[in-house]
Amino acid sequence: MDFFKFTARRPFVLLLALTVLFAPLACGDDDDDDDTTDDDATDDDTADDDTTDDDTTDDDTGDDDEFGVVAFTELSDDRMGLSLVTEPLGAVTRLVDVADHMAMFPAFSPDGLTIAFGANLHDPEPGVNFATMLYTIPTAGGEPVRLTDEDYLLVTENTPLYSPDGQTIAYVRSHMTEPPANLDRIWLMDADGGNRRALYDDTVSANDWNPAFSLDGQWLAHVSDRDDWCADVYLADLLQDPPTRTRLTESDCANVDGNYRPFFDETGEWIYFESARDGSYGLYRVAATGGTPELMWDIRFCTGDEHLGAPYYYQFRPTDDRLSLIAAGTVDPPMRVFTFATLVPVATPVPVTGLDVDAVDPAWWKPAQ
Length: 369
Known about the structure:
Blueprint: H1 12-18, E1 37-38, E2 42-43, E3 52-53, E4 57-58, E5 69-76, E6 79-85, E7 93-96, E8 103-108, E9 114-119, E10 133-138, E11 145-146, E12 155-162, E13 168-175, E14 184-190, E15 197-198, E16 208-213, E17 219-224, E18 232-237, E19 244-247, E20 256-264, E21 270-277, E22 280-287, E23 294-298, E24 312-318, E25 325-330, E26 335-340, E27 350-351, E28 359-365
């Protein structure tokens, strides 16, 4: 079960539990924060956290691989806050931190100046309803601005995602009575909250989750259980009105527990996704034209002494250029955030948040190279 799949009336404690449910085990060393390739002509740094550092002259003042900023949901006993860091293991800045409330699912605008997120800050009884609406906040800090104004007694909205041009936000919406009632469907809206509309105009009794734009903005990949209960990866052509829908994977639910969080690579030719199948859990890819999924990285069930203490990874998300990954993982036992500087091959993870921070659902914005 994907922790994105919740409705407006489930208890707050259940939301916390779902964030750490079914986290798959990955192999890796979480202590490496040095370069794997440092090819400067004259490089005087001794603890560079770049994976590829190719400045002609590098004095750590104008590095071409600037870290950027990571936003994430920070868990505590009485809230789910929105926090960020600007360097690995750096100081945590809490942007939204309100007792008994939730602020989660952060997503950066393409320019990195704004974060969209789901929250129940509007709810006068946050311990009763738990429905989230969409908000924005400046990355530099400020007051949250409510982006959507639907009736929180009937509607919940979450997991916003900006299009590459920053003009559109995709998100997941559920309505208690509007067909298809109590099911999650993907919606689109303008970045200012206007022109809200459903991705598909049908009322099929099915859930759609995990929207992901292609870099050119034409395609939207997502997961849906409309053809099988274990959910598959689909592709919508946004240039069509209404968008066409193509099923890319056809899972045998007898050995596939689910497919999650698809995203395009930088070429647009491949769609990566997480999948629990064949007794393991891995990062797979499938051609944007469809075909047989290909296992790229088996990230579950590591055994042997060399992997003792290795983190459990899940919630993989790419940076906007689709060349590097960020993930959340568990270590003894808090959740932490890790960066992976390359996607193919998947690089050694670098820890971003320390063991004193309980973090899930990260998003990573990096300046354009």
